[in-house]
## 1
Amino acid sequence: MTAKPASLDLEKARHRIDWASLAPLVTLLAIMVVFGFLATEFFSLGTISQTLKRGSVLAIVATGLTFVLLCAEIDLSVGTMALFSACVCGVIWAQPFAAGAREIQDQRKTALSLVDKRVTAERKRDAAIKEREALTDVSDKRREQIDKTIRESTEVIDKATAAIAQAPAGGTGAEFRSTAIAIAIPFLVALILGGVSGTLTVSSGLPSFIITLAMMYMANGLARFVTLSQKYDVPQFLKELGNAPLAKLSLFGRTLEIPQSAVLAAVVMLVAHVVLQHTRFGRYVYMTGGNRQAARLAGVRTERIVIGSLMICAVTAACGGMVNAGRLESVSLDQNADLLLEAVACVVLGGTSLFGGEGGIGRTAVGVFTFTILRVGLEATDPARLIKFSWLSQAWKQELLKMSWVTQFDLLRPFLLGIVLMLALVIHGRLVRKHHE
Amino acid sequence: MSDTAEPLPPLLDCRNIGVRFGGVIALHGVDFDIQPGEVHGLVGCNGAGKSTLMKVLAGAVPEYTGEIKIDGHTVRLHSPREALTQRIAMVYQELSGIGALTVAENLCLGRQPTRWGRIDWNRMNREAAVSLAELDIQINVKRRLDSYPLVIRQMVEIARGLHSGARILILDEPTSALSLPEARRLFELIAKLKTRGVAMVFISHFIEDVLAICDRVTILRDGRRLQTRRSSELNRASILHQMVGEERESAADEKTEAMLPATGNTMPRLAVKNLRQGVRFQNITLDVKPGECLGLYGFVGAGHQELVHALAGALPIDAGEITLDGHRMRTGDVPSAVSKGVVLVAADRAQTLARRASIAHNATLAHLKRSVGSWITGRKELSVCQPLLERVGCRPPNPKLRAGALSGGNQQKIVLAKWLLGPIHVLLLEEPTRGMDVHAKAEVMELVAQQKRNGAAIILATTEPELVLAHADRIVTFARGRITREFSGQRVTKQDLMHCAEESSSN
C-alpha cells in the first residue's frame, strides 16, 4: 500500500537537483566571481599559487578534523596540538645529537651563497678578459689593472670551488637520521596525546568538547614549557616543504608554482578519502556519527572508532603544525593561534554536519578552497583602487577616498570574512533543513 | 454521515483537507470533525494519513489545502504556536517532556509564574499540584519527571496540554507503550476529561482500545476517509477489514489463544542460569532450543526486554552465566555476541537505525567484512544489498535511499536484514512489530519464521500477548524482573498470560 507513493517520490527525487549538497560548491563559485570583479589580478596563476600555499596547512588539519566531526565529536586541541608538535620538532632539532646535521645544513647554506659569489666573479673575469682582448692601445697601466682583476676573480672562483667541493653535496646519513627523528617524535607525541583525549572521552562519558578543551590548555602549556618561550629553528626539510615549489609549470608565458606543501596536503586528503570511503574503519566512522547506539548494537566497537578518529586528528594537526613552522622557517609560540577555528570553519563550510554522519573529504576540500580564496581575495581587494577606476566624478572619488572604511579597510577584513561565512552557513543550513523536510 | 443530523455544532470542523509532500499525495480531501466532550478515534494502517492529518491540526504542516473551522470560524494553522492559540494541543507518541526537570517545571514550561521577574517556585509547585489533583494524579510535583513511569509522564503531558488551556487534545498512540493496568488508568483520565468537555482525538493501532474509549471512529486508508461511525456500530473485525482493505483477515486476526506444541529433548542452543542485573531482573534461568521460538511476555518494566539486551551483550550483567551450545559466552560485549551469531533487534528504531544514512550503509553495518570485504566500493555494496532488499521485501528496494525515508515496517526489515548477512544462531527480538500495520507485521514475522525454519533459536520479548500467542512455541511470563510461569505443550489464552504477568505485581 505504502510502496507506490514512496517509489513515486523516489523517481521525483532522482530528477530534482539536490541544492543542499551543491550549496558549498555554489558558494565557492560565487566567491570566485565576486572577487574576480573586486580583487586586483584575481584570475592569475599567482593567485592560484598563493591559494595553494596558504591553504595547504589548513587542508591537512581540516582533514583530520573531518574524521572527528563525522564521528559527532569535536577536537578543540588541534591548534595547540599543532603548535606543541612543531615546538617539539624545533627543540629536538636543537639538541646536541642533531648538531652534526645542523652544521652540514649550515655548510650547505654557505656553499649556496658561495655559488652566487662565484657566478659574479666569473662574470667579472669574463668581462675583464674581453676588455683585454679589445685593447689595441697597449697602455701598461690599464693592462696591469685588468690582469689584477682577472687574478683576483680567479682566486675567488678557485676558493669558492674548493669550498663547494668540500661541502656535503647530497643528504648524508646523519642528516637524514636527525631530520627523521626530529619529525617522527612530534608525530608520536601527538598520536599519544590524541589517544589520551580519545580514551578519556570514551571512558569518562563526557563530551569530547570538554576533554579536548582541557587537552588544548595542556598542549599549550607544554609548548610553552619545552620552548621556554624561545624561537627555534626547524630542519631544512620542513622549510623546503613549506616554501619550495615542487614544480614550476609554464602556462601562457607565465609560471605556476605548485608548492610542495600543497602536494602533501593533496596526498593526505586522498589517503583520508580512501580510508573514509573504502575501508571498514571509514564506514564505522560514518555510522558511529550517524547513530552511535545503532552502530554499537550492530557490534561496532564505537569506542575504538572515536579514539582512532581523535588520534588521526592529532596526527594531522602535528603535520599541519610542522609544515606551518617550515613555511615560517622557525617555530615560535605565536603560531597557529587561529588554526582551530579556521579548520572548523573549513569543514563546516564544506557542508559536513557538526552532528556527525554526513560529509566527507571532498566537501572539506571545497571548504578549504572557499575559506582560503575568501581570505586571499579579501587581501587582494583594495577599495581605493576600485574607486579610482570607477566611473564616478572626481569630486565623489575624492570624498570616498577620505572615508574611514576605505582608509582603514585592512581592519575591516576579518569583519567581512565573518559576514561572508555567516551568510554561506545560514543559506546552507536552510537548504539542508528544507531538504530533510 | 450528515452534519445537519448532529445536535451540536462541531467544535472543530475540517473540510476537504489535502496535503502533498513533493509528488506524493498524503491526504486526498479528508473531512473530519469533533464535538465538544467527544473522544474521536482515528485508525488506519501506517501511511494511511492519520499522523499527517493530526500534524495539520497541530500546525506542523502549514501547506495544506481545504478549510478548518473552529467554533464556526475559519482559521488557518501555520505553526504549532497558532494551533496552541486555537487551544489545540498534541501529545506525541515519543514523549516530549524534559526528564531532567521536575514535574511542576514540565507542566508550566514556557508559562512559569513569575514574581519580580523571577520564577515563583512556590506558586508554580502549588499550581502544578492543583492541576494534577484535579485529574486525580497524585504525585510529587517537585520530583524529576524521569523518576516516574511512562504512564505518569504521559498523563503529565496531557495535563500540560490542559494547563495551557487546550480544549482539543490530540493523543498519538497513547497506549502503545503502556501495560494494561497503566492503559486502564489512562482511560480513566480520558473519561474524566470528557466530562469536563475536552474533546480528544485518539490515534491508535490498538483497535480494542479505540472501541473501548471512543465515541466515534474515523477510518482512513491511503490518504482517504473511508467512513466515520459511532463506535457502537463498529466491531474489531469490521474496522480491521476496512483498514486493510484487501483480503487479509487471516493476518489481521490476532490470536487470543494458542495450543503450544510439546517440547523435544534436543540440546538447548542458548541456556541462561541465574542471571541478575540490578533491579531490572533477578534469578533468570531459561533456555531455548534450535528451531524454537521462546516468547517472553510481561508488562513494560517486567524485565524481559532488558533481558534480551543483556543476552545480546548490550547490557552488562551482575551475576549469572550464559552458555551457547554448551560453551560459556562472554557477557556485556556486543561484538563477541554478534560473531557467535547471537543478535538483537531492539524495539526502539532510534537505537537500531541511522536514519540519515543510506539503506545500504545500514544493511551492511553489522557484517561489513563478511558481505562486502575489506575494500568497500559502492558497486560491491549495491550488489550485496539489492538481492537482500528483495529477499526481505523492502519497498522501495533502493539501497541508496535514506533509511529514514522508509515506513516503520520497512525500516524494521532493514534492521533484520542486517543480520541476514551473517550467521544467526540466536535471534533476540524486542517488540519487533511495535507501531506497524497488520500487513507489515505479518511480513516481518514471516522473516523471523524463516530463520526459525533454518534452525535459529528465537527469543521474542514483547508486551503484546497476541504476538507471543501467534508465534511462540513456549512462553515464559515475567513480572517485576522475575519469571512467574512457563507455558509449554498446553493450551494457553491471553487471559492466562495477563494473569501471570500481573501475578507478583499484586502482592
## 2
Amino acid sequence: MEKSSTPQGKLYRWLNERYHLDSVIHFASKKEVPIHRESVWYYFGGVTLFLFIIQVMTGILLLLYYRPGADTSFESVQFLITQVQFGWLIRSVHSWSANLMVLAAFIHMFSNFFTQSYRPPRELTWITGMGLFVLSLGFGFSGYLLPWNELAFFATKVGTDIVGVVPFIGEPLLIFLRGGEDVTGATLTRFFGFHVAVLPMITTLLIAIHVAFVQVQGMGEPVAHSKLAPEKKRAMPFFPNFVLRDVILWLFVLDIVAILAVFFPWELGKKADLFAPAPAGIAPEWYFMFMFQTLKFLPSHVLFIEGELLGVLGFGLAALGWTLVPFLDRPGQSGQPNRLFRFFGLLAVSFIIVMTIVGYTLK
Amino acid sequence: MLPGTDRIKLRSVILVAIITGLLFTPISGFAENSCRTCHGQLEGELAAPVQAMAQNDVHASRGFSCEACHGGDPTSEDPEVSMSAQKGFLGVPSARQIPEICARCHAQPEFMRQYNVGLATDQYEKYWTSRHGIALKAGSNEAATCIDCHGSHGVLPANNPQSPVWPLNVPKTCRRCHEDEALMSRHNLPANTYKEYSQGVHGVALLEKNDIGAPACNDCHGNHGATPPGFEDVAQVCRGCHPANSENFLTSPHKEAFDAAGIKECLACHSNHLILTPQDDWLGVEGEHSCGQCHTAGEKGYQTAVNIRQRVDSLRNREVEARFLVHEAERRGIEVSQAQDYLKLARDALLLARTMMHTVDETKVGAVVDSGLVAADEAAASGRQGIADFRFRSLGLGVASILITILIIALWLKLRQIEKK
C-alpha cells in the first residue's frame, strides 16, 4: 500500500501501526496456488464458503420475522413470503443457497478425496472438512423442519425414526432430538435452537480452523504434480490472481442463486397436521435420498440383524472410514497414488448417484 | 323298496363315500353328514350345493348344514330314511316356502343374537310389505324371494364385498331380473332401469368410481321392504341425502304448484334413474331441462328464471376468471394460499347459489351471488398482483444479472491486466 498522505494512506498507516497489516499482505503476496489440470477443484471450497456466508446473511434476515412454534412457524413464513417486501426472495435464496452449499461441499469433499489432498501434513484439514460436511447436513436436516409444513414434518418423523434404531444411544438420542416421543412443537423449537445457535457456532469455529490450516499449509497438490521438478511446476499468486478468480466465480454463483429464486421460488406447501395421515411422496432432502432409498431396499432382517439397523450401522462405519482416510491410505502417506481407494471413491459416487436417481424415480 | 342285493350295494357305496368324505373333508362341522357325502359323489346340479356350501358359506361356517333348510336326517346313511317325509325332508323348497324357511331363524331375535347381535330380524315382516312379497303372496312364482338376492348355497354375509348384496354389487343383482324384458313386461315394469341408472350420476359414482357412499337401488327403494316410492316418497327419499336442496324446494312456490299439477317434485327436472349431473343451463328458459319447459315468456316465473340464471352465470364467469389468474400466478411460483382461500369462498358461494336456486327466490340467490362475487374479485386481484409481482421480479433479476455480468467482465479484464504484467 502506498504510504501517501491521502485519506486512504493515512487510514492504512493508522491500522498498520496497530495491527501489522504489512505482515498479512506480505504473507498473502508470497502465498501461491499451484496450477495443474486439477486446479479447478480448488474453487469449490471457496464456493462452499461463499454460500455459507449467504446462508448466514439471509438467515439473519429471516430471523427478523420467523417465529418458532407449532402455531406460528408456518404462519410467520407465509406472512414473510406474501406480505414482507422481498421476503420471498430472502427465503428462496436461503433455501436454494442451502442446497447448493451441500452440493458444493459434496464436490469439494470428493475432489479432495480423488486428488488425495488429505495426505500428510493435511490430515486435520480433511478431518475438519468432514466435520463441516456433517454440520452442513445437520443444517439441512434441522432447517427443513422449520417452516413446519406437511412434507418436512413427516420427513423429520421418518428421519428421526432412523436415528432411533442406533444401538444403545438410539432411543435416548431420538428423545433428545424430538424433545419427547413424537415430532411436535417441542421438536420444532429444539431444531430451531440447533439451526440458529448450536450449529452456526460450531461451524464458524471449524471453518476458522479449516481455513487457517489451508492458509498455513497451502493448497494440497495431486500426487503426480507434487513429484514434478520445481522448475516444471507452475503457480499463481493467491492474491490477487486466485482471489479475483474466486470472486468472479462467486458472482456467477450469486446470479445462479438469484435466477433459481426468481423462477423456482421455494414452495411452502401445506401446514403440518399432527393428526393427518402421511401424504404420498414423503421424501427427505435430496442429499439424504441415497441413504433413505438404501434403507428401503434392505429386507426386514439380514440373518439375525434388523435390516434398518444394519443399514444405519453400515452408513455409520462408512462415514467413520471416510473420515479416517488420511490414516488408512498407506500409499498416500508415502506420496503414492492408491488405486484401491480411487476405486472405492468411484464406487461411493456411483452408489450415491444411482440410489438418488432410483429414490426419485421408483415409486 | 330296493331288492336286498341292490340295497347292500347302495349301502356299500354310501359307506365308502362316507369314509372318503371323512378322510378328505376340511370342514369338521360338515363332515359326518350323509347329504354332503352323497351329493359330493354326484355330478352337476345335485353336487353344486355341496360345493357352494364349502365356499365360505355363512351358515356352514356357523355349523348349519343342509337339514337346517331342507329338513331330513343327515345322520342316517339310508337315503330312504334321511330324505323321508317322516324326517321332515322338504326337497327343493318352493318360492312360497323360502321366506318361511329363512324366517325360522332370521325372524327370531333371541336366536339370531347368538350369532350376530347387530343383525336386524324384521326382514320377514318387511318383505311382505314389499312389491316382491305382495306378488309372492298373490301367487306369483316369479317374485323375488330371499335367495334371489342373497343366494341359496354359498351365502355370504352382506358386508362381504363378494356378496351380491354388497353395495357395489346390488345394481347387478337387481339387474338380473329387472333387465329381463319378458319378465318385466309381464309385470308392467320397464326393463331399462339398470341402463338408465348406470348412466346417471349415482350409477357412475357407484359402478365406475367404486364410491360405496353413492346410492345403489336399495338406498332409494328399500331392500327387504322394497316398494317403488309413491308421490310423496320421492322427495323424502332424495331429502335423505340432499336436505338443503329439498328444504329450499319445500319453501318455494313450486311445492304448491307441483302438488296441484301432480308433478313429481325432484323428478320433474332431475328424472329418477337417469339422473344427469345438473348444469347451469338447466336454469333459465332454454334447453331440455330448463325452466322453459313450464314457463313461457311474459310470465313472472319466466323472468325470475332469466334473472337467476344471469346472476349465477355472472358468479361462475368471475370465479373462472379468478381461478385462471390465481393459477397463472401460482404457475410463476407466487405464493397464492390466501388467493386460494378467496377462490374457495367464491366456489362455495357458487355451489350455495345453485342450491339456493331451488327457492326460486331472486333475492336469496342474489345475496349469495353477491358474497361470491366479492370473494372472486379478491381472488382475481390477488392473482393479478401475483402476475405483476412476477414481472417485477423478472425485471429486477434482469437488472441484477446485467450488473453482475458487468462486474464479472470488469474483474476478468483486471485479472488479465494483472497477469500480463
